[in-house]
Amino acid sequence: MPNARRLISVVAVAVLISLLVWAVYQDQFSSGGATQAEKPAVGFRAPDFLGVDVATGQPVKLADLAGKPVLFNFWATWCPPCREEMPALDKLAADFRDKAYVIALGADPGESGELLLGYARENNLGSLTIVRDATGAATRRYGVRAIPTSFFIDAKGVIREVRLGAMNYETMVQGLKKAGL
After folding, report:
1. Of 6, 67, 133, 134, whose CB count within 10 A is highest?
2. Four-residue CA torsion sign, 138, 142, 144, 147
3. Residue 138, Cα to own-chain centre: how many angstroms?
4. Closest Cα partner for 70 from 60, 57, 78?
């Protein structure tokens, strides 16, 4: 009987260790490879990304935007709520040009830079920085499941608010204020 109890204890400890390892693994890797310090959640450092500004052809990285709050909006041209909020994003970019970065990231890798740029020109989005994520890596790293999704990131790169769905101008300003505007 003592051997049976010992065996049960060993099995129970092994199961608990396995569950702990699984929980740590899930927390570490469920956000597309972001580390514990870098995670797409409020209070955590925002995952870095690399995209291309469709107007200039220049690379855009979150790390290069340090020093000002950032509104990072995932969208697509075929998304009605995304299209609805684009004029407000463009106005926000114009109004806070010197105080914050407003980035609209094309979340659909199937949409070319030319398509995104054409959409911006057709809709007079002259102040908004539109970035293409050609591989979908940023969308995966941020765990975006629906668009539009917006991340408000402070000047140190920490996420201060996440919003799902279309926003109006006032909501965007409130988010930037939470990010330190």
Report:
1. 133
2. negative
3. 7
4. 60
